[in-house]
Specification:
Layout lengths: L6 H16 L17 E8 L2 E7 L5 E7 L3 E6 L4 E6 L5 E6 L4 E7 L4 E9 L5 E8 L4 E8 L5 E11 L1 E6 L5 E5 L4 E2 L2 E2 L8 E5 L5 E5 L6 E8 L4 E8 L10 E5 L5 E2 L4 H5 L8 E3 L3 E6 L4 E6 L5 E6 L3 E7 L2 E6 L3 E6 L3 E6 L4 E7 L2
Antiparallel strand pairs: 1-2, 1-30, 2-3, 4-5, 5-6, 6-7, 8-9, 9-10, 10-11, 12-13, 13-16, 14-15, 16-17, 18-19, 19-20, 20-21, 22-23, 23-24, 24-25, 26-27, 27-28, 28-29
């Protein structure tokens, strides 16, 4: 039997929604009283079966927190001051709040036959939210379209691009790029590893399929994405093949072209333990993290070659901030790094989960 959203889960989520509608997000207990500007938002683990979204300053130091009912994953923000946190796949909710006023806006529950895949993105003007969703029982991929100005009412669904979409990003030209995992799952259990069909798919905001490419090895499930500020997309993969094989886990692509693997030695790819989580890129550098590998790597975008491989316990989120990378860790570490120039790290006191989102 496929797992469903249980009555107890729904009661928990609805209770959280009612609480959020009546009360502001409470300030983080140990946050500094010095006024700091929100710059980064990520999910965190705060105790056994206790989770939160954390608003932090530019150095990853916490300013405020918002309890969330289940483990979170990706976060998206818009210019109007909204942040949306998505439940970890198969997610039962997304939660929207105002990171400036610290007020809850909406808790959206998944329908009983649907789930969220943990990611979403706003349109450039912040008026639409696009969320990766799946149909329980088939894993049919769906992009749900929500109208921000209508209290996040769902106004459209886009499908027909494959099974198991994970991360969706907005390209500078307004197109959507989707990492399609190609995996049919029961909860988190894969069911079709022998015939999975991952792809990198590009859609217009109206659902037109603009381009779709795949990797030669169909056991490389495309999951996490970033772009370089222009036309190049970076794809992070999860390898679902033989445990003693270590293929390239990151590829570059520009619409109309072919996939190009980034380069590293097999023993270096082995450090990533078959999984790439967060990716960030500039026109010069690419940084990718691996929580199970407790490491992150930096590649030269021009050569495609690995230039640094660094240990970091439970390496999690990464964003570009100015001319630096900011990297988070499930062990509470934050790293600020300029490739080949400087690196410093410190403790944030937060057990950061997989991803960070920069407030723009």
């Amino acid at each position: 039997m496929l797992p469903m959203v249980t009555d107890q889960t729904r009661r928990t989520l609805l209770k959280a929604a009612l609480f959020g509608a009546a009360a502001p997000v409470m300030p983080f207990g140990c946050a500094s009283t010095i006024s700091r500007e929100p710059a980064l938002i990520g999910c965190s683990i705060i105790g056994r079966d206790k989770f939160a979204a954390v608003v932090a300053d530019e150095h990853g130091m916490p300013i405020t927190t918002l309890p969330i009912p289940e483990r979170g994953h990706g976060v998206a923000t818009n210019p109007q001051g909204h942040a949306v946190v998505f439940g970890r796949r198969p997610g039962t909710f997304f939660m929207v709040f105002d990171y400036r006023s610290e007020q809850m806006i909406k808790l959206q529950l998944a329908k009983p036959n649907r789930h969220f895949y943990g990611h979403g993105v706003y349109s450039h003007d912040g008026t639409l939210l696009f969320a990766t969703e799946g149909e329980r029982g088939t894993s049919r991929g769906i992009i749900g379209v929500y109208d921000v100005q209508k209290q996040y009412q769902k106004i459209d669904e886009v499908t027909g691009f494959g099974l198991g979409p994970h991360e969706v990003i907005m390209m500078p030209d307004g197109a959507l790029a989707i990492g399609v995992g190609g995996v049919h799952t029961n909860g988190r259990e894969p069911l079709n590893l022998d015939n999975m069909a991952p792809s990198l798919s590009y859609l217009s905001q109206y659902g037109e399929l603009l381009d779709q490419v795949s990797l030669p090895d169909h056991k490389l499930s495309i999951r996490h994405l970033a772009h370089d500020g222009a036309e190049t997309v970076l794809c992070g993969q999860q390898y679902r093949g033989e445990p003693d094989e270590y293929p390239a886990l990151i590829s570059m692509h520009t619409r109309g072209g072919e996939m190009q693997d980034l380069q590293a030695e097999p023993e270096e790819w082995a450090r990533f333990n078959h999984y790439v989580a967060s990716i960030a890129a500039t026109d010069e550098w690419i940084l990718a993290t691996s929580p199970p590998g407790s490491c992150y790597g930096i590649w030269s975008k021009s050569t495609g070659k690995l230039v640094e491989l660094n240990a970091l316990p439970d390496a999690s989120g990464v964003v570009i901030y100015g001319d630096e990378f900011r990297v988070s860790s499930g062990a509470g570490k934050v790293v600020e790094q300029r490739p080949l120039e400087s690196k410093k790290s410190f403790s944030s006191g937060i057990q950061w989960d997989n991803h960070w989102s920069r407030i723009i």
